[in-house]
Structures are given as C-alpha cells and as structure tokens.
From TrEMBL, chain B:
GO cellular component: cytosol; succinate-CoA ligase complex (ADP-forming)
Organism: Sinosporangium siamense
Molecular-function GO terms, alphabetical: succinate-CoA ligase (ADP-forming) activity; succinate-CoA ligase (GDP-forming) activity
Any Pfam family the entry gives: Ligase_CoA
InterPro entries: SUCC_ACL_C, Succinyl-CoA_synth-like
Limits of the ATP-citrate synthase/succinyl-CoA ligase C-terminal domain: 336-461
Gene3D superfamilies per the UniProt record, alphabetical: NAD(P)-binding Rossmann-like Domain, Succinyl-CoA synthetase domains
Protein name: ATP-citrate synthase/succinyl-CoA ligase C-terminal domain-containing protein
One GO BP: tricarboxylic acid cycle
C-alpha cells in the first residue's frame, strides 16, 4: 500500500495544543489550524458513540443525497380535505405536537380563526371553549406531509399547494400565503382575516388550480436557484421568487380565468412572501425524501409551535426532540417591541433544514441587518453553517461566495461538536392572539433539541461500538 | 402636551429592515413616545394610524415619518437623530468580504485541503476520536498525540483507516516524521533511507538521533501508538506502516521499534515483515532483545556503516567535589525521566534504584509534559539526598522546551554542589532548535556527566552507585 502523505508537499492540519501547531510553523510547513473548542457540555460520550456507529457515514451520505437530488415541482392547488387526512373538527398546526393548554397566543388565535372560518364555532368565545375542552383534534402539519408558516393552522377548506418530488415520488403540501399584517398565521382572526380566507378559498385557490392545469408543473428547484441569485434567501426575503412565480403563472392565470386574473395577480403582487409557502413545500418534500435512513444523524425537520422548538432526525423516525422556543432578536414594526413578541413559531424553518433561509443569508444582502449589521456578518453566518452541514447544495448557489452551494443537511453530531446552532431568521408574531406580525429577526434554536436527539442516536447505535 | 412630527418623503427608499432600525433608534430616545419610520405601505400607514397619528395621503413609494414626543424640544432632538440615521444609511458601506473564520473541526479544515496531508490531533483524549475520525473519513492519515483514547476507539479508527488507505499514528503517539516534517516532539534529522515504525515516541527519538549522529538519515518515522502490538489492537497500524514504508521509494531499510509484540500480534507482524521487499531490522526492546542503542547499532550494521563511539562528557571525579559533601556519590540511584521508553529502558538496564516517568498520566494531568515544562522534575531533583546518583533525560527537538538547560543546568549545578552525581542523556541533533552541543555543554559545565546514548548513561550511573563499589 502507498500512503499519500509520504510523497508530495505535505500539508498539516492541527487540532489541539497550539504549541504543536507552532512547531509545524517553525518548519515552514503549510498548516491549517482548527479553532477547536470543547463540544456542548456532557455530549462527548454520545458524540463518540454516534460517530462510531458503523452505519452513520453511509447513512448520512444516503440521506443528504436524497435531500439534494429531490426535484420539487408545484403541480396543483387543492382543498385540504381532498388530500389530507383531516376529519371534520380536526386542525393541523405548526411545530411539534401541542395541546391548547400550552399553546401560545398566535396559535390559539389562528385555531380560533380557523374554527370560525370552518363554521365550527359561532364566535371566538365558543371556539375557545371548544378548544379548551379538547373537542378539537390537533395534529402537527409535519405528521401529514404538510408545513405551515407561523401558526401553520390548516383546516379542511383551505387550499393547499401540492408539491411533487419528481425524483423520489414524494408529495408535500403547504397552505396559500395570506400576505403580511393581520393574518391568520400570525394569530389574527378578525373579520378582515376571515374575509380574505374566504376569498382565497373561493377565488385564489380555484384560479391557481386552473392556471397550473394550463401551465403544467412548475420546477421549484430551478425557480429557487434563480431567486437565490437575485437576492432572496427564501425565508424572510421572497421578493425575487414571488416575482418569478408571478411571471411563470401570469399568462396561465389570464388564460384560465380571464375575469378573475386581475384580482388574483394583484393579490400575488401585493405580497412579497407569496412564494414562501411554495418554497416551504419544496423544502419539505425534499427533506421528507431523506427520512428514515437508519443510522443517519441528519436533521429532516426543524419546526416551532410557539412554545417548543422541535427537530426530527432521519435515523430516528417521527420522534420529536424539543426545547423551549426562544424569542427572536430582531427589529419591530411600528411601536411594537420585544415585550410584544411571541416565542418563535412556524414550520418555515424547513427552509433552513433544506439549505436556504438563514443558511443562505450571504445571498441576500438586502436583508442582512437581520443578523445584526452588515454583509460581512451575513457572510460569516452562512460560512459558519458549513461547519454543521453535510454538503453544499448543487443547485442553490451564492454568487457572493463564488457560486458556492448553500450549506445543507444539518448533522446533529456537528452541532454538538461545534456548539454552532442553525441560523434561523424568521418573522415575529405578536404574543397576544389576534395581533398579527410585530417584527422579524434572528432566533437561536434551543440546544437541548439537538443534545436530546444526539442522546437518542447514541442509544440507537449498535452495541459493542466505541 | 405631546407633539407629533408627521412627514411623507418621496423619492427616498430604504429597505424595511434599515427603517425598523431607525424607528428603534428614535423610540429609544428619552421622551419619545412613538416612532414609525417606514415606507408608506397600507400596512405601515395602518400601524401609524393605530398609534393615533394623523396622516396625509401617501402612496407606497413614499417614506413615512411619524414621531411623537413629550415636548417640542424632544421632537427637535428626534428629528436631528432621524437625519443622522438617514445620513448613516446613505453613507453605509456596501460591506466587504467577511474575514474568514478558522475551521472549527478537523472535517471543516480538511474541506479546503488537497494533496498530501496529515492531521495532528492533540485535543483532550475524550474528544480525540471525533477529530481523528474526521481525518480518516476524509482518507487522510492522522497522528493522535492525545492519550486517554479508549482501546475500542483506537481499533475503530484503525479499521476505518484500513478501509480508506490511511494510517492512524497513535493514540499517545509522541513523535512522527513525514517526509522531513516533524510532528509532535520531533528532532530535526538528516534526510536518508531509514524508515522507522515505532510503538514508542522517545524510543524512536533515541534511535533516530543516534543514527543521525552516526551519519545515517531517516526517511520517515511512523508512530503506531504504544498499544498497537497488544493482543487487542494486533498490530493494525504496525502492519500498515510497514507496508507503506515498503512501498515508499525513499526508504531502503525499515526499523521496527517496539516492545516484543503480544503473541496475538507477533505472527501477523512477522508474516508481514517476511512479505516485504525492504529489509527490516526488528528492534524489539526488553531483557531478551535490544536496548535502544544496540538497536541503532544493528541498523548501522545493516547499512554497513561504522558504529561510532557514542560520545560522552564525564564529570571529573574530584572536580565538582563540595566542601560539605561526602565525596563522590556512592548512594542510591534516582531516575528522573521525561521520556517513557527511556525511563523503562533505564530501569530495566539499571536493575536497581527508583525511577519516575514524569511524562506519565499522573504527572501530566492539568500540567504540561515535562519535555515542555520541567518544573516538577526540578523539584524532585532538589529533593534527592546528598551522596545519591541522579539519572535524567533531556529531549530536544520541535515541540520541546526551547532551552531546557536554562532551567536544568543551574539545578544540576546546585545538586552537584550538594554532592550528588548527575548523569544526563541528551536526545537530540545539531539541527534541533535547542542545539545539541549547546545543551550538552551547558549541562556538562554544570557538573553533569552527559551522554547521547541512554544505555551508556545508565551504565555510567550504575557505576557511580554504592552497589557498584
């Protein structure tokens, strides 16, 4: 056998004692020094055990390959009751499982609004009573191949974007985006909210379905790749993607529903985040393709319900690993301030799970002040995510980093080793039900979601490993 | 009586995030009750109206400014702050390339490396597996300097390395030399044709420095870790290192330095040796085999090179006599060592005395290795009773104390004045940063007898003890 290191100009990677690194420098040999720090407290045994799992390397390769090779297409828009296992009186919500008792203001508000929208209750008080009595079945979106932004409440009559993975055959759903301000997903349920939902069900959904029947499936992967090169990061900035979507759909909308086209196009034009939900479904269907690979330590979902932040891991099935949702550190609309902010909420962290959003901050100089200042920090945020991810996305690229692929495929072991938590940028919901959006900013996921997942991976690792 | 400032500016655009920052800065001013600085979208106009501002007509391309303060003076101050904020936005730098942070894991460090590479891991033992595995999974050979790595982890690392064609040197591997690059505690050796496979760090250093003195150069030193030839590890790295040196065109003679392998490993290693095209000098240390010096001599024989007289500087018997000392030593032998293998060799060869390996775990927990910081050993030297004999080692090279004699020579001088005989072995080469001759002269000048062969130093020390008389 030959050892590559014995021939050629040697480069040395040093990790640990600085003195030994200096000794290499003293010999004028090229060296890369690792800025090593101890892992998250108490995780070293679990890290070693999970790393020693003989299945891990191949499992992670399989999982991340599936995530990267997914080809999400927007195929149609359909009412939830046609496609989701959603009985009357059942509602989906964002994040890990939660009941009414622990639900935060915006989730409560959105559930009340959805009940009113479905006619399940006559007024907010009655809805609240029924919810508090447990007469309503609640289930996470993620358990139904679905994601929902913010409160993420989905009810039978809502129209859903249907995204199909042309590579692996999976399907995922996301509701239609209502716009900003007082909207159901931020927990508002006033008359204007319900009226808009009604219009979306009566007009927007059917028109989009008809338009997609005309245009045929829309390649979301290609569209997202373009949007990243146009300044979106696809979580908090979707302006380019929305514009591209509008461009793709406009002729078909006019063809399919000439008498409704203007109002539909105007609605989409008026909402810079219209694309977000399609992007979320694209990330969801891609991440779902990577689920259930035994031994894989790759995160396949990050989601918040306004109380808990939870993650799911490919090698750990449908189990959730949670910690308390943090309050985002951000900037506030109008006179709102941190006291008005609800803890972190929504399934939109599926974007970071899929390698965009906060992970692609460097692509989006227009909104970099979410990370507290300047382009340099946004670049640093994206760069730091390469430390905790398994791959670089072949299609989602960042022009400012020399078209380097976005960091993708969060590895629980790398989070524990580096202590670097996924960078998440997000909207901030008002704490009080019915308030709506109060700001936007950055939030840190709770460490324990990752450490408990790591511990579970360690337990699952075969015996007799180191 | 509070006062409102309401304006709509046209032809100005700032993104919402910048403007939220301005709003926040204004709201933070003492006396300001509310501040909305935002593009005049329907949403933002609604927010301002909700706060009770009376707004003029505006379209979304306008910039809305709505500030309420407790009094007119505060409002003026707020307006001034507003202008400062806008000026700052206008002058804002476009932002440059972020300084690239160093990698946080070995995996990340290797992502940017192509070509011949080796990783040197010296994090605390419980964390070493992860870093070493990063290297192995990238197909890169790794030297694990760290100790306290479990034997299960060692075996796993070595098996993974075998699968990808890499070599694990260690754990607890103190020295290696790869193509002239010294790793860990490493002497500067003349380049040559002898490749060393070593289960012992200081053992390899002793042999290599003696070869250097004799004019024989070294191609590589591949450490394998002290447990590699145990029944559990079964020579996993030794076999790979032997084969790698066999395939290496720069190596024409291989030296295997180890304690005798466990029976479970011995056959495998001997079979491997027999299958190599390159001759191997097995230097198996111990009572039935070699000491390090005779191992070096065996190598020189194999190279058909003359064996030099290993130099020594013997302290004159009477020259360093002290006024109050009992005369030349004659007491008990104390081995105060920094190098583990050197210590073991000395203890075995001496057959008497008390030996302390200051590089052992008990002495290095929470403090630097004695090759880096000799404080503990100096304390021990100061505690040796008058009339006794002290035997110690000084290991030179990269990574080691940049000038060990600076602290050791005065301590030696003091010991000699107390009537203690000091015998030192200096393991190093002229090329080492500390300078072999300079260190030898400093110690000899302090009254020590100095050797470059540990075995010779031991025999001299024993000759000075009472038992020899």
């Amino acid at each position: 056998m030959t050892l590559p290191m014995l021939s050629g100009d040697l480069q040395v990677i040093t990790v640990g004692a600085g003195l030994l690194g200096e000794a290499v420098d003293a010999q004028a040999v090229p060296r890369v020094g690792v800025d090593w720090r101890p892992p998250l407290p108490g995780t070293e045994a679990a890290i070693a055990r999970v790393l020693a799992d003989p299945r891990r390397a191949a499992a992670n390769e399989t999982a991340v390959d599936r995530l990267l090779s997914a080809r999400p297409h927007l195929v149609t828009v359909r009412p939830a009751h046609e496609v989701l296992d959603l009985a009357p009186g059942a509602f989906l919500h964002a994040g890990p499982p939660i009941g009414w008792k622990r639900a935060s203001g915006p989730l409560r508000g959105a559930l009340i609004g959805a009940m009113l929208y479905e006619g399940a209750a006559g007024d907010a008080r009655e809805a609240e009573r029924m919810l508090a009595a447990g007469d309503v079945r609640l289930s996470p979106c993620h358990h139904h191949r679905t994601v929902g932004p913010m409160a993420g409440v989905v009810s039978r009559s809502m129209w859903m974007l249907e995204v199909h993975d042309a590579e692996h055959g999976g399907t995922a759903y996301c509701s239609l985006n209502e716009g900003l301000g007082k909207v159901l997903r931020y927990g508002a349920y006033g008359p204007e909210v319900l009226k808009r939902l009604q219009w979306m069900g009566d007009v927007l959904g059917p028109v989009l379905r008809a338009a997609l029947a005309v245009s045929g499936p829309l390649d979301l992967r290609a569209l997202m790749a373009q949007a990243l090169q146009m300044g979106d990061e696809l979580h908090n900035r979707n302006r380019a993607a929305t514009s591209l979507l509008l461009r793709e759909l406009a002729p078909a909308i006019v063809d399919a529903a000439p008498e409704r086209a203007a109002e539909v196009l105007r609605f989409i034009h008026g909402n810079d985040h219209f694309f977000l939900n399609a992007g979320m479904a694209a990330c969801k269907v891609s991440a779902d393709a990577a689920r259930n690979v035994p031994g894989s330590s790759m995160v396949v979902a990050m989601a918040r319900n306004g109380t808990d932040f939870g993650i799911q891991v490919s090698g750990l099935g449908d189990r959730w690993f949670t910690g308390p949702a943090g309050v985002p550190d951000g900037l506030y609309l109008g006179a709102y301030g941190p006291a008005d902010a609800n803890p972190d909420i929504g399934d939109s962290t599926i974007t970071e799970t899929g390698g965009v959003g906060g992970f692609a901050m460097a692509a989006s100089p227009a909104i970099v002040r979410f990370v507290g200042g300047d382009v340099a920090e946004a670049t640093a945020a994206t760069r730091s995510m390469y430390e905790i991810t398994l791959a670089e996305h072949p299609a989602y690229q960042i022009p400012g980093l020399g078209f380097r692929g976005t960091p993708v495929g969060i590895d629980v072991t790398l989070v524990a080793r580096t202590g670097l938590l996924p960078v998440v940028n997000t909207g901030i919901a008002g704490r009080v039900a019915g308030t709506g959006q109060v700001g936007a900013g950055l939030v840190n996921p709770p460490v324990e979601a990752f450490t408990t997942a790591l511990a579970a991976l360690a337990e699952e690792a075969p015996e007799n490993t180191a | 009586m509070s006062a409102d400032l309401v304006r709509v500016r046209s032809g100005v655009y700032h993104d919402s995030v910048s403007l939220m920052g301005v709003s926040r800065a204004l709201a933070a001013l003492p006396g300001v009750e509310a501040a909305v600085v935002a593009m005049a979208t329907e949403l933002n106009l609604g927010l301002a109206r909700d706060l009770g501002f009376d707004l003029p007509p505006a379209d979304p391309s306008g910039l809305l400014i709505a500030v309420r303060a407790g009094d007119a003076g505060t409002l003026d101050a707020a307006e001034a702050e507003l202008e400062r904020q806008f000026a700052a936005l206008a002058n804002r730098r476009t932002g440059g390339e972020a300084a690239v942070s160093p990698p946080r894991t070995t995996r990340a460090a290797l992502a940017g490396v192509e070509g011949a590479a080796v990783a040197l891991v010296s994090v605390p033992g419980e964390h070493a597996f992860a870093e070493a595995l990063d290297a192995v999974e990238a197909g890169v050979s790794v030297m694990v300097f760290s100790d306290n790595v479990s034997i299960e982890q060692e075996i796993r690392l070595k098996d993974r390395a075998a699968a990808v064609g890499a070599l694990v040197m260690g754990p607890d591997c103190g020295t290696a030399a790869v193509g002239g690059v010294g790793l860990g505690f490493a002497n500067v050796l003349r380049p040559g044709e002898v490749g060393l496979v070593a289960a012992s760090g200081t053992g390899a250093q002793q042999v290599a420095t003696l070869l250097d003195h004799a004019g024989a150069g070294v191609s590589h030193i591949l450490g394998v870790g002290g447990r590699d030839l145990s029944a559990e590890v079964r020579g996993r790295s030794t076999v790979r290192a032997l084969r790698a040196l066999d395939a290496d065109p720069a190596t024409s003679l291989i030296v295997l330095i180890s304690k005798p392998p466990a029976p479970e490993a011995a056959d495998l290693v001997l079979d491997t040796v027999r299958g190599l095209a390159t001759p191997v000098v097995p230097a198996l240390l111990g009572p039935d085999g070699h000491d390090l010096t005779s191992a070096a001599e065996a190598v020189l024989n194999a190279l058909e090179m003359p064996i030099p007289d290993w130099p020594s500087w013997i302290a004159r018997e009477s020259g360093e006599m002290t006024a109050h000392g009992p005369g030349w030593a004659g007491g008990a032998l104390h081995g105060l060592y920094a190098g583990g293998t050197l210590c073991a060799e000395a203890e075995a060869l001496a057959g008497e005395g008390t030996f302390t390996d200051f590089g052992a775990d008990a002495y290095t927990r929470g403090r630097p290795h004695p090759m880096i910081d000799g404080t503990l050993r100096l304390d021990a030297l100061a505690a040796v009773p008058a009339g006794d004999v002290v035997l110690l080692d000084v290991v030179l090279g990269h990574g080691a104390d940049p000038d060990p004699s600076a602290s050791l020579a005065p301590a030696v001088a003091q010991a000699v004045r107390r009537g203690i005989a000091v015998v030192a072995v200096v393991v190093g080469t002229e090329g080492d940063p500390q300078g072999l001759t300079r260190q030898i002269h400093a110690l000899a000048g302090a009254g020590a007898s100095v050797f470059i062969s540990n075995a010779h130093a031991v025999r001299h020390a024993v000759s000075l003890t009472g038992s020899a008389k």
